[in-house]
Amino acid sequence: MLTGSLTTPGQGVSFSTRDLAPSDSVAAWERALSQVFVDLEVAVERGRPWAGELTAERWGALQIATEEFGPGTILRSARSVAADHRTHILVRQQLNGSALLLQDGRTAELLPGRLAFHDARRPFRIVLPRRQRARILMMPRALLRLEEGQLSALSASVVDEAGEGAAALLLPLLCGLVEEVTKVPTPRSEQLARVAADILATVALEQVGRPPAPALWERITASVHARLGEPGLAPQDIADQHGISLRYLHRLFQQHGTTVNSWVRTRRLEAARQELAQPGAAHRSIAAVAARWGFTSPSHFSRTFRETYGTSPAQWRSFAGETAAAHAATSVGEPPTVHRATERRAASDNP
Q: Among 167, 250, 267, 342, which one has the highest count of C-beta atoms within 10 angstroms of its own C-beta?
């Protein structure tokens, strides 16, 4: 049986078939793999010796496991998919030996230095011709920030550190980070695991060759707009709400020519500016309006408002009120004073 726990960061679990009776080994190995990853089935060839070793640790949303097994086959069948609602993305990185990963009609031949993504939402098969060793990283599918069609295109495609593009630079860095995380747990280990997940997301994005869906930007900005009144709203809160890393959140806003804090501040100022211009809000103090939109300091709000709009909140409210009164007078047929003065001046200019 598995020893240890995956609920405590850095503690981890381990399993070995070494001391089990041959008649019990296959079922026990299957249970161990299914508990650590997703529901899986195992097949071995009768008469051929085999063994299985498994260790796993969880750091935040990222699980890092090392599997030694073979010869044999690991199967995620349609029956397993229907019975098991876990929909994680798994990344198999070959450390030694070889493996064939089959999913969505594609076959990835994995040798040391290569990795491939596979999706627990659909059936897959891993064929191991002999004993081998691999690292398996498992994460929620949301961390890759890809559409379902992109995830389908990603499965069973080989990523090689000997290739070109970002993968050639990032895979060695990924290996180093994972080694550092699993070697000796430290307070920084969970942070390093988040960086490793970011690297995987970048590699996946390059592999499918398309930018992330714009719907993510729309969802994030809509949710942030709904939370503008929360004075403690921080980038990490936003990232957590949408299941993405803080690093990726910042990169997403940079792609739109801004930063998270700047975008939030601008929207808060604009919301406060609009409220100050509303006649129905005239009874609210400027400090109350500022607080309503997440500003905790009235003086800071006034200073930032003036820097942005070139006028103070009080001056803007006064100007907006006069403009609204002038518009109301015009709408009932009585032109405002400034218009009459203009008309008199125009009449006096006529020859």
A: 167
